[in-house]
Amino acid sequence: MKLIVSKCSFPFQIRLRSSLDDGGEVPSPSLYQFRPLQSVFRRRLLTGAGAASLIAIGANFCGVTSFLLGFSPEASRSLKLYAIYPINGYFRYIDTSQGFEFVYPENWLGDQTLLYRAAGDAEAERSLDPPPIGRRKKKNEPVVAFGPPASTGELNVSVIVYPVPDGFSMESLGGAEEVGNTIVKTIIASRRSTDVEGKLMAASLREDASRNIKYYELEFVVQTSTFWRHNVAVCCTHKGNLFTLNAQALESAWPQFNSQFNVIAHSFKIDT
To answer: 57, 60, 225, 237: which has the fewest Cβ within 10 Å?
Structure first.
């Protein structure tokens, strides 16, 4: 028998020509016989598309993951996904050693000096060698700070953790407004210049009843003959430490960053 492929219209017919005397043709089954394979091919195609989708989500390709997680920010927060993917334009910084967290704009970067210093301190704690003589950590320096790339430090957010005596609480200073005025006066007194002026713009109290923590959210301005800054700060005490988050910008840039600073302030919390 001879194999012949006729070039007719699709689907092509594969025919077997008999070499017998009758010269007849015995048509073979058409390509419709392969229809059962279509379902297999379709399943493999869908599986491949699903795998590609998972890869796109895992890599946040073109912001796919951030977009999807934005539909459920509460679930994303509980799973700590803010620390991996930006959600609604913000990353979440989580400090497991000090036990606090907050969000910051996704295009801001960490202060490299503080990051290198933190890495060095961690290495020093693991080392068996004695610490260098004369090296002391300043208690009032930030443990972390973020700001725009190539900025001069006029625009940033930072957190300071300072030990306080046992039994001390912010409530002993009074209500939110009294706390705010006390902090502004302390800032003015700490400046060497005599032309420093400060003004409390707003003060409010946010409470976490489950951890018995009170967050004092403050807005104030500090002005001298050389600069004029607008600040949003959050202060609280917990387990013998005073936590202070401060976001600052030049007064001229305040309208642009007002809403972002409020988001940062509201996100700050102790998680221990």
So the answer is: 225
Amino acid sitting at position 147: G
Residues 13/32, Cβ–Cβ less than 8 Å: no
Q: Please answer whether residues 20 and 2 qualify as being in contact, where contact means their C-beta atoms are separated by less than 8 angstroms.
A: no
Give strand pairing partners of 158: 145, 246
Alpha helix (H) residue ranges in 71-111:
73-78
Vertex 211 angle, CA 119 and 94, to 5° = 25
What letter represents residue 206's amino acid? Answer: R
Tokens linked to 233: 């700060």
Residue 255 has which token pair?
């309208």
pLDDT in tens, 101-159: 999 999 999 886 665 555 555 554 444 445 444 444 455 789 999 999 987 788 999 99
Residues 185 and 138: their CA atoms lie apart, in Å, by 22
Residue 31 burial (10 A CB sphere; 0-12, 13-18, 19+): exposed
